[in-house]
């Protein structure tokens, strides 16, 4: 009986291992950073310094320290000039980074400067700088759910012919996409980003037309969603799974696996305690039989 119980537990553990392997194998493979070439030590050091300065800029913008943020922006500008095209970053990506810093300087130098626009500019730089140093798991990946939720609301309002609501949701989508666009150009192929730009323009024109062209707008939104899935290395099915949005999914999977294994072992131990596999020989005289 003991041997039989052990065999059951081993069988269940084996089934779990097979299920886990299948789940991992079926998961969409993450997109490779573009390009694949590694940075030189000098470039990496510059990128890390730039990332630290970008993080500091973002903190200063959140705290409303405008003067200190302007000083940090100047440092960022100097660091950006030290980055060169060496195969580890595309020309489009390098241009996007320097252009974002230049735009941020204009924003902070504007007479009509607003803290909200300052934070927006700092966020774009923060994500772009992070994309340079964290090719495998950049921060901009966290925008997936926000963008998919924006799309879903747009589609719902277009289907109901609620033009004003759809336009408001489009503005949210455009804002989110503008925030991560420089980082996308660093991490992904420029052609993919260009496709998203074209779809956004098409949707904006469609929503601004006197009459909503529902079929074409919904088709454009669907195509935009599929392109986003590809860029983020995700899928529609994942967007609705009740899983935590974590940057370390392997640890979450191992944690679940360890919990299930623990339950199985405990169940086996209980089975053995309740029915250990042998009959107790009772002393009838002591028990009064």
Task: Label this structure with key terms.
12 helices, mainly alpha
Overall description:
The structure is a single chain. This protein is mainly alpha-helical. Among the domains are: 2-21 and 250-277, no CATH class; 139-241. It has helices at 2-26, 41-62, 66-81, 91-109, 115-133, 144-159, 163-187, 190-208, 214-232, 236-239, 249-274, 284-287. Helix 2 packs antiparallel against helix 3, helix 3 (66-81) runs antiparallel to helix 4 and helix 5 runs parallel beside helix 7 (163-187). The two termini are 28 Å apart. The model is unreliable at 15-30, 32-36, 237-253 and 272-289 (pLDDT under 50).
Give the strand tally: 0
Q: How many strands, what sense, and barrel or not for the largest sheet?
A: none
Number of helices: 12
Which bin fits the share of residues in helices?
A: over 70%
**Mass-distribution shape:** globular
Based on helices, strands and strand pairing, what is the structural class?
Answer: mainly alpha
Which value, in Å, is the CA radius of gyration? 28 Å
User: Distance between the terminal alpha carbons, to the nearest Å?
Assistant: 28 Å
Unreliable spans: 15-30, 32-36, 237-253, 272-289
What is the H-and-E element order? Answer: HHHHHHHHHHHH
């Amino acid at each position: 009986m003991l041997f039989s119980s052990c065999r059951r537990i081993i069988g269940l553990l084996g089934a779990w291992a097979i299920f886990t392997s299948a789940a991992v194998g079926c998961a969409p493979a993450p997109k490779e950073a573009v390009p694949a070439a590694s940075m030189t030590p000098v470039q990496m050091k510059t990128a890390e310094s730039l990332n630290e300065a970008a993080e500091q800029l973002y903190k200063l913008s959140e705290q409303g320290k405008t003067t200190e943020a302007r000083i940090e922006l100047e440092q960022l500008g100097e660091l950006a000039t030290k980055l060169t095209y060496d195969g580890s970053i595309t020309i489009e990506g390098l241009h996007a980074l320097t252009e974002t810093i230049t735009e941020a300087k204009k924003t902070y130098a504007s007479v009509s400067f607003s803290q909200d626009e300052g934070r927006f500019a700092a966020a774009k730089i923060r994500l772009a700088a992070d994309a340079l140093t964290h090719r495998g798991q950049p921060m901009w990946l966290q925008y997936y759910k926000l963008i998919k939720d924006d799309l879903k609301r747009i589609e719902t309002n277009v289907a109901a012919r609620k033009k004003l609501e759809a336009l408001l949701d489009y503005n949210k989508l455009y804002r989110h996409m503008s925030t991560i666009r420089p980082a996308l150009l660093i991490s992904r192929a420029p052609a993919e980003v260009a496709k998203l730009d074209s779809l956004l323009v098409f949707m904006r024109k469609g929503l601004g037309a006197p009459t909503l062209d529902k079929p074409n707008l919904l088709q454009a939104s669907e195509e935009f969603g599929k392109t986003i899935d590809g860029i983020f290395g995700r899928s529609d099915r994942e967007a609705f799974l009740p899983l935590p949005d974590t940057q370390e999914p392997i640890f979450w999977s191992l944690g679940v696996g360890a919990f299930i294994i623990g339950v199985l072992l405990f169940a086996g131990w209980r089975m053995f305690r309740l029915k250990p596999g042998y009959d107790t020989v009772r002393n009838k005289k002591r028990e009064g039989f």
